[in-house]
Design goal:
about 15% strand, about 280 residues, alpha/beta, four-stranded mixed beta sheet
Length: about 280
């Protein structure tokens, strides 16, 4: 059995199409989409419709939750701030029917035909847990409580390819289709194949697919996304263009500048961040 797992598309349609074309060439038995289809790039609605058309299992990620919680009692009050303008754009782009579909997505995937495999977006506990090489074992164990003894857990959320051993098995981070952050602008996903020679019964291969990055960058302009998403849209644009982490480091930088009393406008803060000031 071969299983392809894609995650973190983030409204990047050319990257999604390239990844799906490569998946087709690999002839997997199953395809799983592990969340964060929307929000970040200029084509959230088109990516969701394309994923639906594939007809495969789809999990919800934290960005699906942001979209369907936005404007409700569950929304974080900070989401109304200009720094969340990309979320506002994604929310406005999606119809109410599409938002309801996102809200109904499951949190995890298992299948008797794929024994020993669990797929989640971030962790079984939360759609927003990050796992790094340096994350302490006790914190990982808290995130994955209840999944002890599962030979292979595949997740997305962190936009890089990684593997680490845990509880006698492996936790594999798939990489991102639409917003890679390892300095390599590409569409990345993971391909699993049953292999009795592997301890957990699965051979894991990370796939990197070149796509038309310039086409996505044109969509940022032609769709009006950059104007509507404001300064934060510029940072998502830079993530696509460079394949590097921009948004979260900026938010940390912004917090520091506020505490230091040097923060003025969001646009100025983004300008200074990009300039390295």
């Amino acid at each position: 059995m071969r299983i392809a797992i894609l995650a973190d598309i983030h409204g990047n349609l050319p990257a999604l199409e390239a990844a799906l074309a490569d998946v087709e060439r690999q002839h997997p038995d199953r395809l799983i989409i592990a969340g964060d289809i929307v929000d970040g790039g200029p084509d959230s609605a088109a990516c969701w419709e394309r994923v639906k058309a594939v007809g495969c299992p789809v999990l919800r990620g934290n960005h699906e939750r942001y979209v369907y919680d936005f404007g409700t009692e569950q929304a974080d009050p900070q989401w109304a701030d200009p720094q969340f303008a990309p979320l506002h754009v994604a929310r406005a782009e999606l119809s109410q029917d599409q938002i309801s579909e996102l809200a109904g997505l499951p949190f995890r995937w298992t299948d008797p035909d794929a024994p020993g495999l669990l797929v989640v977006h971030a962790s079984p506990r939360s759609d927003n847990d990050s796992v790094f090489a340096y994350t302490p074992e006790e914190i990982v164990s808290t995130m994955f409580s209840g999944a002890e003894g599962v030979p292979l857990i595949v997740r997305g959320h962190n936009h890089f390819c990684a593997q680490r051993e845990w509880s006698g098995g492996r936790i594999v981070t798939s990489g991102s289709v639409g917003l890679t952050q390892d300095g390599n602008p590409s569409a990345q996903y993971v391909l699993l194949e049953r292999d009795t020679l592997e301890r957990d019964g699965w051979r894991v291969r990370h796939r990197m697919v070149r796509y038309d990055v310039a086409a996505t960058l044109r969509r940022f302009h032609d769709s009006g996304y950059l104007d509507k998403a404001g300064p934060m849209g510029r940072l998502f644009y830079r993530e696509v263009a460079t394949g590097t982490h921009q948004v979260v480091p900026f938010l940390r930088y912004q917090t520091y500048r506020r505490q230091a009393g040097t923060y003025k406008t969001l646009s100025e803060a983004v300008d200074r961040f990009i300039a390295g000031a």
